[in-house]
Design brief:
Layout: H1 2-32, H2 38-52, H3 58-71, E1 76-78, E2 84-88, E3 100-106, H4 115-127, E4 133-139, H5 146-149, E5 161-168, E6 172-174, E7 176-177, E8 179-188, E9 191-193, E10 198-205, H6 212-215, H7 222-236, E11 240-248, E12 257-264, H8 269-287, E13 295-301, E14 310-312, H9 314-326, E15 330-333, E16 348-360, E17 363-372, H10 375-391, E18 395-402, E19 405-406, H11 411-424, H12 444-450, E20 455-462, H13 466-478
Parallel strand pairs: 3-4, 3-5, 5-20
Antiparallel strand pairs: 1-2, 2-4, 6-20, 7-19, 8-17, 8-18, 9-14, 10-12, 10-13, 11-12, 15-16, 16-17
Helix pairs in contact: 2-4, 4-13, 9-10, 11-13
Keywords: Membrane, Transmembrane, Transmembrane helix
GO molecular function, one term: metallodipeptidase activity
GO cellular component, one term: cytosol
Length: 484
């Protein structure tokens, strides 16, 4: 009996020694790693989310970033495009290593959605140590990439490792992103005297603006909804007239609202209001869950003398309808015959998005944002758009364009993924990070144009995995572990 107790004690001592050894090893591993302080990081994230609810101007956002950089005594400056640049010198043992450049974008309209990538960049700017480090917050007001397009190549050293961060539903790495183009399609605007005796003022509102890539196919588009109304009226083969068209737009993003005056003769009014009642209700039901302020309403203009005296001519209205109807506003996808090992059936290869419809002097202009997998598919969609323009007697002009992005260093995603796995394995989870192709335009195209000798990688940051990305970046900068 005594011998049995002695064996129990011996076993217990061995177990305790083993536990202490494992604990010390885990502590050693963690201590030499540069892990995120989760409490501090969470506060950064939540502050950005809260600030995003107020939606100030992009100037307000820049001012907030500048105050933060000054408060934390960072070495910073702002360039003429509204980009905030923070630079940190290398530690003595890492001064001969390639520079690391962390880049993200700020946009007043998507600040809450971008909180994961912005918080990650801010944390690294405050705490990153190791290689020469630059952290850049690019001005992306209205998703026009103004800051990225105007960024000086001198901020991206040759042979540097550049990580572009944005926020997404899942975390992944990408070395490829879409080409982009914005075009204006202009139809001649002619005004004529009103002949209809009745009318309504329609309002389509509450369509919270967003980046087209984030919700294509599920986002309410007031221009598309207006086109459906015009097509309905044209199909009725009864007189109708349009005036006072106004769209609240946000550059290269979904428009927020649309108002217009629609006039018919009194005998057609019951049909028009019935259509609007039905469409307004179905529109609200379809989108109310995700867009609680959504509305498609009308106000009857009671007296004929209150109607506009001047309206768009039949030719102008007809051209506008043809243009809106013929240009595909949505997603182009690979069909079964086009699918490959890389691009599966139903994968998107291009997008068209109506972003604005406005009076512009003697024309009415439809702005279309197009993005595509590469030049071949961009040319295909452009050809279709040009054909639609000809049918509508519309002229076409390019507002902006950028090439598709392909990274030059296939080893960088492998290296970063190994950092991600090794560093985050101390959390006790089996960590991995996939490499995917982007299906939208990213700032990587502009960064590559600024310096095509840098290794550039897009890092998509999910809210539920943001700290793991931050851990990997912190340790990549510190070069704290050896990876292949």
């Amino acid at each position: 009996m005594t011998e049995h107790k002695h064996n129990n004690k011996t076993t217990l001592i061995v177990v305790l020694i083993a536990a202490v050894a494992v604990g010390l090893l885990a502590y050693y591993k963690t201590a030499r790693l540069h892990m995120v302080n989760r409490s501090e990081y969470k506060k950064m994230f939540e502050a950005l989310e809260e600030k995003g609810e107020t939606k100030g101007s992009n100037s307000d956002q820049l001012s907030s970033l500048e105050k933060w950089a000054e408060k934390n005594k960072l070495s910073w400056n702002t360039d003429s495009k509204g980009n905030l640049i923070i630079q940190r010198a290398a530690t003595s043992s890492k001064s001969d290593q390639p520079a690391t450049v962390i880049v993200t974008e700020y946009n007043r309209n998507t600040l809450a959605d971008d909180a994961s990538s912005l918080a990650t960049a801010k944390y690294i700017a405050e705490h990153g140590k190791g290689t020469p480090l630059t952290v850049i917050f690019l001005n992306n007001e209205d998703n026009l990439h103004k800051g990225a397009a105007g960024l000086s190549g001198s901020l991206i050293p040759d042979n540097s490792n550049v990580f572009f961060l944005d926020s997404n539903k899942s975390s992944y790495l990408s070395m490829n992103s879409f080409a982009g183009k914005m075009s204006d399609f202009a139809v001649k605007k002619e005004m004529t005297a009103r002949t209809c005796d009745s009318g309504v003022k329609i309002t389509i509102s509450g369509c919270t603006t967003n980046d087209p890539r984030s919700s294509m196919g599920s986002q309410p588009d007031p221009i598309d909804t207006f086109e459906n109304l015009l097509t309905y009226l044209k199909g009725k083969s009864v007189p109708f007239q349009i005036s006072d068209l106004k769209v609240v737009s946000h550059g290269n993003m979904y428009p927020e609202s649309l108002t217009a005056t629609v006039m018919v003769n009194s005998y057609t009014m019951p049909d028009l209001t019935k259509y609007l009642d039905n469409k307004g209700e179905s529109f609200r039901k379809k989108y109310h869950k995700d867009y609680p302020d959504i509305a498609y309403t009308y106000e009857t203009i009671e007296k004929e003398e209150q109607l506009p005296s001047q309206v768009y001519s039949d030719e102008t209205t007809g051209s506008m309808i043809n243009l809106l109807y013929t240009i595909e506003n949505g997603v182009y996808r690979f069909d079964k015959t086009e699918a490959t090992d890389v691009h599966k059936e139903n994968d998107p290869y291009a997008y068209n998005c109506f972003t604005d419809l406005k009076e512009n002097g003697d024309t009415i202009d439809l702005t279309v944002s197009t993005s595509a997998l590469n030049k071949i598919y961009m040319d295909q969609v452009e050809d279709e758009n040009s054909t639609a323009a000809k049918l509508a007697n519309a002229s076409v002009s390019t507002v902006s364009e950028t090439d598709a992005f392909t990274g030059i260093n296939p080893q960088l995603p492998l290296q970063f993924s190994n950092f991600y796995t090794k560093v985050n394995n101390v959390t006790g989870k089996d960590m991995g990070l996939q490499e995917n192709d982007d299906t939208y335009v990213t700032a990587c195209s502009y960064l590559s144009a600024a310096n095509d000798r840098a290794s550039i990688l897009h890092v998509s940051v999910a809210q539920n995995g943001k700290s793991y990305i931050a851990n990997a970046l912190m340790n990549f900068i510190a070069q704290s572990v050896k990876v292949k």
